[in-house]
Design goal:
alpha+beta; NADH Oxidase; 2 domains; seven-stranded antiparallel β-sheet; binds flavin mononucleotide
Length: 533
């Protein structure tokens, strides 16, 4: 009989990259079957969304201090801005006859497995319904009509099309989908903050019900198109509309949904990776996610960011660095502020989106920070984890408390680790040429008994990655998520067991970026979209 916890941990081991061999994957790119990056539901009514992102002026320095602007009205225009700034296109790049879109949210391999949904009662300009967001055309496809007089609060939904990542990455694809989901959770939280709204990951309704509510369990509508895996539901708190947030209200309304639309097929052929479907099933979310809630987390005082841009500007200009200049040096106080921003903080997005206690901690490979010794540092996102880490990590680490008093940051080793960081990140130079690189350690305790926690650990890591992307932009730097790393080589460096409680789930790097001047940058949408009112 299958055991979800055991199957999930077995998947994690099987999908590790090793110095001497990569996790099972295609090893080449099958261009003939490259998945369409856009899921379209043909035949449903469409609601065109206006472009408004560049007209919203909430400043990042304010949002980062937990001060949101007054809530904007909940209507079609502002829902459009929410999707634009969370999942919309941010730019088009062109090079030698090829052209590709980049989005406000990052994604492993720019493959974008994450699909976004809205379940809403009637709002000004938007009939009640279940909507799928088509970022290509910045519109909402109305997958289901709901009774126009239904009373409930709007929610956002996320799903993953695992095939998009499996096409390139094989077995490791499920991890990338989960990290991307975490980034999307962060992207929605930041986009909502621009509008004076909050989002929050809900601990309900569980996989089966969510599939029904989002209409991704309808075989007739899917036909031979690739399945969408339900991930999570986000509460949308937009000022005064907050009263009716019960699962029962939604459940009752959704029994009356009238569905339309047929999913497009993304690739002609698919290669199956044994273990992918199994881990998706093993980690299926139960009806209620019983996780320890986060305790009070007062935010730490931060200096204003080096560049005080409107948050919407930072979101739209965010890009992954492809290469770093090997010279930019970050002042230590800016580094400490970035580290402090990775700690949970009450009332500060995107931590308001995450109600659970922190289970992911951060190892820094500091390369170029003025006033800090290059070396290995550990940031405990829950200071109480110190004794456990002291017991688990190499006995000879220094454990010298570093930085401002309230920051649980410890120097483990003073040494130039540029080559080590690059090697551990699948030999990628971006982990060495930056100001600092990061390895995120997740707490795997309890995954054997409740395998869905495996998804939560990756969402939390993706959420941290989203903060790093924006903090990098605000410091005049650039970040890049790194999903390719040699798992057990990282564990060996730290002194951790390969099957132990702490497992590395994500890497990241931040530094002074080199622009690729060969690429042409084009606007994301036709100018005419601005005329949509
Ligand atoms: C989970 C995740 C893993 C990633 N892994 C890598 C990586 O290993 N190496 C790399 O160069 N970029 C990596 N990236 C960056 C993506 O390639 C990048 O987000 C994507 O190409 C879209 O570009 P953009 O971030 O500029 O929008 C990763 C991004 C994410 C979100």
């Amino acid at each position: 009989m299958s055991d979800p916890g055991r199957d999930t941990l077995a998947y994690h081991q099987a999908s590790k990259h090793h110095l001497e061999r990569y996790a099972p994957g295609p090893g080449f790119l099958d261009w003939a079957n490259q998945p369409d990056p856009f899921r379209v539901y043909e035949g449903c009514p469409r609601v065109l969304m206006p472009l408004a992102g560049d007209r919203l002026d909430a400043r990042y320095s304010e949002v980062r201090a937990g001060r949101l602007p007054p809530p904007r009205p909940l209507d079609r225009q502002h829902i459009g801005a929410l999707f634009e700034l969370a999942l919309g296109l941010a730019a088009c790049k062109a090079y030698e006859g090829s052209r590709w879109a980049l989005r406000c949210n990052p994604s492993s391999g720019n493959l974008h497995p994450t699909e976004g949904y809205l379940i809403t009662p009637t709002l000004p300009g938007l009939p009640a319904g279940v909507y799928h967001y088509l970022s290509r055309d910045h519109l909402l496809e109305q997958r289901a009509e709901l009774p126009q007089d239904a009373v409930f609060s709007p929610v956002l939904g996320l799903t993953s099309i695992v095939w998009r990542e499996a096409w390139k990455y094989g077995l490791r694809a499920f991890r990338y989908c989960q990290l991307d989901t975490g980034h999307a959770i962060g992207a929605f939280s930041f986009a909502a903050a621009v509008l004076g709204w909050h989002t929050r990951v809900l601990p309900w309704p569980g996989e089966t019900v969510l599939a029904t509510w989002l209409g991704v369990d309808r075989p007739a509508d899917r036909g031979d198109a690739e399945p969408e895996l339900p991930e999570c539901l986000l509460m949308l708190e937009a000022g005064e509309t907050l009263d009716l947030h019960t699962a029962a209200d939604l459940a009752e309304t959704l029994t009356l949904a009238r569905w339309a639309g047929q999913a497009n097929r993304l690739s002609a052929e698919h290669r199956l990776w044994p273990g992918l479907e199994e881990v998706a099933q093993a980690t299926a979310l139960p009806a209620y996610l019983a996780e320890a809630a986060s305790g009070p987390a007062p935010s730490q005082p931060l200096r204003p960011p080096m560049r005080d841009h409107p948050l919407a500007t930072l979101i739209r200009q965010r890009r992954s660095a492809q290469a770093f200049d090997k010279v930019t040096t970050l002042p230590a106080e800016v580094f400490f502020d970035i580290a402090a921003r990775l700690l949970p903080a009450d009332h500060v997005p995107p931590w308001t989106a995450w109600a659970w206690a922190p289970r992911v901690h951060i190892v820094f490979f500091v390369h170029r920070v003025a006033g800090m010794e290059p070396g290995l540092y550990l940031l405990l996102r829950d200071a109480q984890a110190l004794p456990e880490f002291k017991a688990a990590l190499r006995p000879d680490w220094l454990w010298v408390k570093t930085g401002p008093a309230p920051l649980p940051l410890y120097c483990l080793l003073a040494h130039d680790l540029r080559d080590v960081a690059a090697t551990l990140s699948c030999h990628q130079a971006i982990a060495a040429d930056s100001c600092f690189a990061v390895a995120m350690l997740a707490d795997f305790e309890g995954i054997d008994a409740a395998a869905w926690r495996y998804r939560l650990r990756h969402w939390e890591a993706g959420l941290i990655g989203q903060v790093l992307y924006l903090e990098a932009e605000a410091a005049g730097l650039r970040g890049t998520g790194i999903g390719c790393f040699f798992d057990d080589a990282v564990h060996r460096l730290l002194g951790l067991a390969s099957d132990g409680r702490w497992q590395v789930v994500y890497h990241f790097t931040v530094g002074g970026a080199l622009e690729d001047t060969r690429l042409t940058t084009l606007p994301p949408y036709p100018e005419a979209f601005r005329e949509r009112v």
